[in-house]
Amino acid sequence: MNPLNRLNIPLILSTLLILSCADKADKNGSPNQALATKTMESPYQLYATEKYPASQVDMMLEKLSEHVYFVQGKSAIATQYEGFISNAVAIITKNEVVVFDALGSPSLAQLLVQKIREISDKPITKIVVSHYHADHIYGLQVFKSMGAKIIAPYGYADYLNAPIAQQRLEERRKSLAPWVNQNTHLILPDQVVDSTYQFKAGDVDLVINYLGNAHSDGDLTLYVVQDNILLSGDLIFEGRIPFTGNSDTKHWLELINHLKDRQLAALVPGHGGIVSDPNAAMQLTQRYLSKVREKMQFGVDEMMTFDETYDAVDWTEFENLPAFKEAHRKNAYGIFLTLERESLE
Fold first, then answer.
1. Residue 302 domain-assigned?
2. Domain range holding 166?
3. The pLDDT of residue 62
4. pLDDT (tens digit, 9 = 90+) per residue, 164-213?
5. Is residue 296 part of a domain?
6. In terms of DSSP bridges, do strands 219-224 and 266-271 run parallel, antiparallel, or are they unpaired?
7. Cα–Cα distance for residue pair 179/190, rounded to 1 Å
8. Ramachandran region, residue 267 (left: φ > 0; alpha: ψ -120 to 50; beta: rest)
9. What values do phi and psi take at 293, rounded to 5?
10. In this structure, is the dihedral angle defined by the CA atoms of residues 282, 73, 191 and 5, taken in order, positive or negative?
11. Is 140 a member of any domain?
12. 96-126: pLDDT as tens digits
């Protein structure tokens, strides 16, 4: 069986397309959202051209398959462990290295590059960003300075152009100093995808699946064909409560339904450990989102307040999961407000 057939996901896989600024303009008319591929003017560098405060976190680059290596962030809130709470992946091929997600500070990205250099001297040519949230993008400037092309999902500009992007950066310059500081910048992508896009890196075939707005304003996954491994970003959370923010949880659940029952060798989530049983991890995220939506919908339909709705629900099946105390009530409140708005439309 062709490995690509295992990822035959309705609503996600469509025609293969390489996007350039001549192909498509911003759907909202914003020049920052233009789809563009930028020609690299400088040669690839083995290390970043700028030095950053050295990270002291315990980071291990572990081998998952022939080509896939990963670092696993800690199960903690965003300002703990120097911001090392998310995962990143290095796909090491015979000619080049492709990185998936950039971690939550330039210092963490610098440490990731050092770990990659311990096992490969091939140039890092591309970094694929699952979505534009702080814990996945603050390390982008490290890879940019090395000459890597940044590939991101359509919708990234909805985050960058919103006040929250700069507000979050200012907050992290304080809460994560010195690792996030005045020299930490928000970086634009070089190429934006809004449909399925396949490319080859050395001897490895890679497929980007554009998901639209699920966990964030724009999400994507990356499938490593020869290794049959899916890098899911924050679509799937392994063994912990997801952070929903202002996400479209209805669409998020639809995407999980389409991913279920795929015969993957493994799944690398955006947070948490490697998933050797992808269906089990999907079911946890699905069960959580479904229950929160169902209970909040009941409260909206009955014209209850959020506090009344929340307090009437038994949440014990989730309360021992990491991030429950930090994220769950905020998740429920955000979903309640979304459903309330939808009821008035």
1. no
2. 3-287
3. 97
4. 999 999 999 999 999 999 999 999 999 999 988 999 999 999 999 888 77
5. no
6. unpaired
7. 25
8. beta
9. -65, -45
10. negative
11. yes
12. 999 999 999 999 999 999 999 999 999 999 9
Residue 315 has pLDDT above 90, yes or no: yes
Q: Which residues contact 295 (CB under 8 A, 6 or more apart)?
A: 309, 312, 313, 332
In tens, the pLDDT along 288-304 reads 999 999 999 999 999 99
Q: Is the pLDDT of residue 138 over 90?
A: yes
Domain presence at residue 309:
no
pLDDT for residue 161? 93
pLDDT at 46: 80
Cα(37)–Cα(152) distance, integer angstroms: 11
Q: Which of 139-143, 171-175, 254-258 has the lowest mean pLDDT?
A: 254-258
Tell me the pTM: 0.75
The residue among 53, 218, 64, 43 whose CA lies nearest residue 128 is: 218
Query: How far is the CA of 336 from the CAs of 21, 94, 253, in angstroms?
Result: 38, 49, 16
The answer to whether residues 157 and 165 touch, using CB atoms and an 8 Å cutoff, is no
Dihedral over Cα of 10, 16, 21, 24: its sign: negative
Instruction: Indicate which CATH number applies to the domain containing 217.
Output: 3.60.15.10
Per the structure, the count of domains in the chain is 1
Tokens representing residue 316 in the block: 């014990």
In this structure, are residues 242 and 219 in contact, taking their beta carbons and an 8 Å threshold? no
Residues 6+ apart with CB under 8 A from 126: 96, 98, 99, 148, 149, 150, 151, 201
State what percent of residues in the chain have pLDDT above 70: 87
Residue in 195, 186, 145 with CA at minimum distance from that of residue 42: 145
The Cα-based distances of 260 to 43, 63, 69, 158, 254 in angstroms read 41, 25, 24, 29, 10
